[in-house]
Amino acid sequence: MYELNAIISIAYRDVLKFLRDRSRIVATFIFPFIFIGVLGGSLQSNLGGEVGFNFLTFMFTGVLAQTLFQSAAAGIISLIEDRENDFSQEMFVSPVSRYTIIIGKILGESVVAYLQAVGVVVFALLIGVPMVFSQLVWLIPIGIIICLFGGAFGVLVMSQLSSQRAANQIFPFLIFPQFFLAGVFTPMKHLPIYLFILSRISPMTYAVDLARGIYYLGKPEFNRLVIYNPVLDLIIITIFTILMITVGTFFFVRNERNR
Amino acid sequence: MINDVIVVNNLVKKYKKAKENAVDNVSFRVRKGEFFAFLGPNGAGKTTTISILTTILAKTSGEVKIAGYDIEKQQKEVRKNIGVIFQKPSLDENLTAEENIRLHAILYGLYPFAPTYSQMPATYKRKVAQLTELLDIGKEIFNPIKTYSGGMKRKLEIIRSLMHSPKVLFLDEPTSGLDPVSRKNLWEYLSGVRKSRKTTIFLTTHYLEEAEDADEVCIINHGKIVAIGAPGKIKNNGTRSLEEAYIKIIEEDVRA
Ligand SMILES: Nc1ncnc2c1ncn2[C@@H]1O[C@H](COP(=O)(O)OP(=O)(O)OP(=O)(O)O)[C@@H](O)[C@H]1O
Ligand SMILES: [Mg+2]
Fold this sequence. Notes:
The complex is a heterodimer. Chain A has helices at 2-19, 22-51, 55-84, 87-92, 98-126, 133-159, 164-181, 193-201, 203-215, 222-225, 230-257. Chain A is mostly helical. The longest helix of chain B is centred in the last third of the chain and has 18 residues, at 180-197. Classes of the chains: A mainly alpha, B alpha/beta. The A-B interface holds A 1-2, 5-6, 8-10, 12-13, 16-17, 20-21, 85-97, 256-259 and B 15-16, 54-58, 76, 79-80, 82, 84, 86, 88-95, 99, 102-104, 106-109, 112-113, 115. The structure holds adenosine-5'-triphosphate (ATP) and magnesium ion. Residues 46-47, 87, 172 of chain B line the site of magnesium ion.
């Protein structure tokens, strides 16, 4: 009970901080705006007739998963910022378990990611992205899984980075290629072998594929746009989430005390 | 000894990338309720020692017990029994003072989580009210830390660290950067705490007059203890103030 209270209050702190940071709120909507509005819109208008599926909807589902995954991952990296502001000392000297701190952080950043995802949906509605609401509702529980997965990825990355500067320089390299490799913008079903390998080792691929697998379930486009059965995606995501959190927390705790 | 709240035996710390030991075979004891001043020049190893004693840094070798608990094997118990003021302030600047206090209280299991101040129990609110009185502020307690002065932040950190009634309070240069009046206020508050709660105080400072009242003074240089004893004993080398004695000891140590 005590650890649960601690988890919630650590998570709550992250949500409060997000809500108070106006520039961060604005920044989180810029990417979805460019991706869905500009990129998706232009592709749909120019090529949409020929591909046989709605590009806007396709990109929207991809961006939704990408936003949840990336936002949760990036949020976890802020633990490094805490370390530099010395606030982490206050958490680390308290009697809560280190796992509690990591889990609280993942939970908080998942809520933040969700708030951003709601923004993406509202924006998509405003510009008239065709979507089927009953399908979208399924993405609510699936989104939680994607957040946890992104958070776990963030924990692993963070455990290997020593400073905020390293994080600012390295994190984009780890996340931006995944936009393309995960097929946020383009179907990734048929690929040359080198791309196939890169795409399948990108964690984001399974997040995007799971979201699409659920959205397109039972629709004619399913076979063209979805790579794996959602159950398989789920299994892969679960295994990776557990592995990344365990390994990441282990290294994080070790590096934190062994200087 | 049952009365020793801090026991340090042959403590050694060698940082990963360092050639020399930052803390080099240090041993000392602090009795319950004692005011222990841990002094030494910049880079002597004071913060390193405090970090190990407060479980946030791994030691290289040696044995440390706080309130009877081993700092490696019983970390959680140690953490419950200590309060720490770090050399670098550790408040969350984006939260209000009250939110910082509330987070601390929940992390130490004093109250269950509540999202707002008004939903917290009455005992907590009373505590916050006392706190605002101590800080000599009113509604500012609901303002972000960003808007606080250095002295107020320090005082807030001290009050925060006392929320869970620790047996030992570690203070790493609590008054650095504070003006004389703020320093005086802070010390009045701390001596009050010491008297009323019998809290053991482990202090590092470069303002040596703050250590004149200490029960025990320990001076380290280059990670090694060069003098230990009551201030009277330390001053026994023909000096009048602790500062003079300290300077003499450090200078002799450099020549040796
Ligand atoms: N993370 C670290 N890695 C390597 N060496 C370190 C690290 N932190 C401190 N040191 C070194 O360890 C020694 C002791 O440092 P420490 O911070 O404990 O000194 P201090 O007595 O607290 O000094 P000050 O009065 O300036 O606060 C110094 O030589 C310092 O350079
Ligand atoms: Mg120091």
